[in-house]
Design goal:
There is one protein chain. With about 180 residues, the protein is of the alpha+beta class. It has 2 domains: about 5-45, no CATH class; about 50-180, Alpha-Beta Complex (Nucleoside Triphosphate Pyrophosphohydrolase), CATH 3.90.79.10. The chain has helices at about 90-100, 150-160, 165-180; strands at about 10-20, 25-30, 40-45, 50-55, 60-65, 70-75, 80, 100-115, 120-135, 145-150. Strands 4, 5, 6, 7, 8, 9 and 10 form a 7-stranded mixed beta sheet that branches. It has a 3-stranded antiparallel beta sheet with strand order 1-2-3, with no helix packed on it. The longest helix is centred in the middle third of the chain and has 13 residues, at about 90-100. It starts with 10 loop residues before the first strand and ends with a helix. Keywords: Hydrolase. One of its GO terms (molecular function) is hydrolase activity.
Length: about 180
């Protein structure tokens, strides 16, 4: 028997802020379950982010950077979090210029929840076309290397598990579909 969405909802009873950092907040909520019981939910609150597929002729610009939480270097699309009061398009334009040195015409690709099991982070994806060199100074705590990968190779890698970063896989596949 199919349940309605209202039969699945949980109701917050109380909230405790466990940690407030520069980029995120950790909350511990006590919730009432649909059948009446109680449980605890730990939730990471995040301001949201953007990711950009930057097409430069028949290549895509990616960034190679060390990701401390996984202890390894990854190859990803340019991306970054929203600053307070910043619009999505402004954030995408800023991040692209900071991370690659280029600006371009932004085309929305889609929006997704990164990890809805424990976080409210929403990521907005864009395709950047007609790129022009126009760099901004990168963030002082950001160390990365820009890499231009052949477009067809990047899409093949996205389809075949060649990237570890989920936003990169999704963004490349959405862009490939858009560019058909």
């Amino acid at each position: 028997m199919k349940k309605s969405d209202t039969d699945l909802r949980e109701e917050r009873i109380s909230r405790e802020v466990v940690f407030q950092g520069r980029m995120l907040r950790l909350e511990r909520d006590t919730v009432r379950l649909p059948q009446g019981g109680k449980t605890t939910r730990e939730v990471v609150r995040h301001p949201g982010a953007v990711g950009i597929v930057a097409r430069l002729e028949e290549r895509v610009l990616l960034v190679r950077q060390f990701r401390y939480p996984i202890g390894d270097v990854t190859l990803e699309i340019p991306a970054g979090k929203l600053d307070p009061g910043e619009g999505l398009l402004s954030c995408a334009e800023r991040e692209l210029r900071e991370e690659t040195g280029y600006r371009g015409t932004m085309v929305p690709l889609g929006t997704f929840c990164t990890t809805p099991g424990f976080s409210d982070e929403i990521m907005h994806l864009y395709l950047a076309r007609d790129l022009v060199w126009d760099p901004l100074v990168p963030d002082e705590d950001e160390f990365l290397a820009v890499e231009a990968l052949d477009w067809a190779e990047a899409v093949t890698r996205a389809r075949g598990g060649g990237f570890r970063d989920a936003k990169t896989v999704l963004a490349l596949l959405l862009a490939a579909e858009r560019l058909k």
